[in-house]
Amino acid sequence: MNDDDRPRKPKVIIVDDDRDTREMLTLALELEGFDVGQAANGLRLISAMHVDRPDVILLDVMMSWIDGFELCRAIKKNETFHDIPVIFVSARKSVEDERAGIEAGAIDYFSKPLDMDRLVGRIREILAGRGAVQLTAPA
Questions:
Q1: Distance in angstroms (rounded) separating the CA atoms of residues 74 and 114
Q2: Beta strand spans in the chain (E)
Q3: Regarding the domain delimited by 9-127, which CATH topology (the fold level of the hierarchy) does it fall under?
Q4: 10 cis-preceded (ω within 30 degrees of 0)
Q5: What is the pLDDT of residues 2-52, one digit of tens each?
Q6: pLDDT score of 137
Q7: CB-hemisphere CA count at 13 Å for 9?
Q8: Which of 20, 60, 69, 104 is the most exposed place for a label (fewest CB within 10 A)?
Q9: Taking the model in full, what pTM does it have?
């Protein structure tokens, strides 16, 4: 079986300026069968999306250069990437922050500390709803 015959793993990109958070999420999602990319900020996200289009973007709110809300709005205005689901993952927990995330175009908003089972379940649900690559839980 060559690489083209293997089912493609869904691609998730994590955008967070905190390296420890990116590494923790990457490890957890890879164990769940996802192909995971990382970006430390919005500029790196944009260049990464042109190279390897993600199926889902996990986005922090508080970042340098541009905050997550502005970055999400920019993604949703972009003709090429507007259809990629964005999920906020943030230490900001207020109802106003959640509302701002959804209004910016995100499909969901998760507060830290994360419930990884809930997050993984939501990513799978979003991918299934989009007819994207199906994942089976690792044995």
A1: 25
A2: 11-15, 35-39, 56-59, 86-90, 108-111
A3: Rossmann fold (3.40.50)
A4: no
A5: 555 667 899 999 999 999 999 999 999 999 999 999 999 998 998 899 899
A6: 47
A7: 15
A8: 20
A9: 0.89
